[in-house]
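Progress against Task 2.4 (sequence-to-structure conversion) is shown through the following example record, which the project officer requested during the mid-term review.
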Amino acid sequence: MSAEQPELSRLRRDYAERAIEVTELTSAPEPLFARWFAEVDAVARKSDASWFEANAMVLTTADAEAHPSSRTVLLKGYGPEGFTFYTNLRSRKGRQIAANPNVSLLFPWYPLQRQVAVQGAVAPVPDAESDGYFASRPRGAQLGAWASEQSETIPDRAWLDRRLAEFDARFPDVVPRPAHWGGLRVRPDSVEFWQGRPDRLHDRILYVRDAAAPHGWRVERLSP
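Structure tokens generated for the chain above:
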């Protein structure tokens, strides 16, 4: 181990005594996700946790050759139909999703020593839904959606600043939604709820979509 590398064993922490109780389990994953999200959002809103965004999620995609890539995006809606986010559809993730719609999501909710892992397929949201969300964005974010050729190589920051100024002048009033920008929704095939527990004997509850199961979901407990 090099002199500059910290001793990683010193970073080990014990987890709090929390559990996923049987009484918490729901017939489908969405109600349990909603409860957990409300709890972690309450923590995120505290001043001492202002660094943390409850709706931040790691999106992993893969191209047609199964080469994966991951990045953090922001959840903008969830419900029985799935998990929704918005992006430039010409970006690397947009191109990969077009080639291979199967993705995973990970919500790393560190303050509560929890994570939620989702696997499913992506489909675009209706144009009207994308239009509505785009109209709700701040003007700067709207212009940024036009200015950024997301994931493409650019010469320097000044190029981006010029592009922003150009579109600011082009759209002095209402900024329309670019055709290459819109919403994507992940319809889950499985959702795993993970709760850290002492001695690395964590709780793992897996919901698997199953048409033959009651309410369309099979619920399993996994070994840690």
